[in-house]
Amino acid sequence: MNSVRQPLQNRVTPFGDIIAIAQRGLFTGNRGIIHDPDTKTLLRRRWTSKAWLICTCEYGDRRRDVMAGRSWTELFFLDEAVALAAGHRPCFFCRREAALVFRVAWTGGLMASPSAGELDAVLHSERVLRGQKRIHPLPSPVRDLPDGTMVVASGFAFTLASGRCFRWTEAGYLSPEMGIIAEGILTPPSTVRVLRAGYRPVLHPDITNFLSGKTP
Q: What gap in Å lies between CA 176 and CA 160, rounded to an integer?
């Protein structure tokens, strides 16, 4: 009898939690080494580095056996909006072009460019408070927030795109909802400013197909 393979605990939610679900994601990333390669299970710590990265799932001909070695722990995100909301940023190695655009948007086009470590220090102060995910006050009405921002409403996470609010679920995004009352933003304030300055995160086809009219 064939056994059913259980999903590993390596999917990241917009709240920054790492859970075991079958959801497939557009991006991988890491927070350092936080797993036991013998059991492929997470350790107690949820990060060992302030460099929380968003990486491409494919890079050249490189292939990794997930959680197999004592290297960084492969985490997965439904799309870039979720990764940004959880407090991650583009990787300067495998996603260098995106990372450079992110940094330019961070500075507003000024000549002085922060180092990756400086970005990580600010983001870490904004994503975690006493070991828990920080939820920040709304900086403006929801309708004025940039695309790719994630907000929380009634305990659910929503990605904003083209004036619509798409609820994140373990199965993907649902059709947009109207009239949500957001209680705060999940995306760190510095990242919201980056989005407002023109950084365009890669959104899941659940969203882009709906906006382009490709849904059934």
A: 9
Q: Where are the alpha helices (DSSP H) in 45-88?
A: 80-86
Give the Cα separation of 205 and 210 in Å (integer).
8
Q: How far apart are CA 29 and CA 27, in angstroms?
A: 7
Q: Is the CB of residue 161 less than 8 Å from the CB of residue 82?
A: no
Structural tokens at position 150: 């994630």
Q: Which amino acid type is present at position 11?
A: R
Task: Please provide the DSSP assignment of 142-179 as one string.
Answer: GGGSPTT-EEEETTEEEEEETTEEEEEETTEEPSPBSS
Residue 214 C-alpha from the chain's centroid: 25
**Cα 85 to Cα 186: distance, rounded to the nearest angstrom:** 5
Residues in the chain: 216
Contacts (Cβ under 8 Å, ≥6 apart) of 4: none
**Which residues lie below 8 Å from residue 37, measured CB to CB, with a gap of 6+?**
67, 68, 69, 70
The SS3 call for residue 39 is coil
Tell me the pTM: 0.94
Q: Give the whole-angstrom CA distance, residue 195 versus residue 126.
A: 16
Strands 89-90 and 164-169: unpaired
Q: For 74-119, how does the pLDDT look when each residue is reduced to its tens digit (9 = 90+)?
A: 999 999 999 999 999 999 999 999 999 999 999 986 667 899 999 9
SS3 52: coil
Helix (H, G, I), strand (E, B) or coil at 124: helix
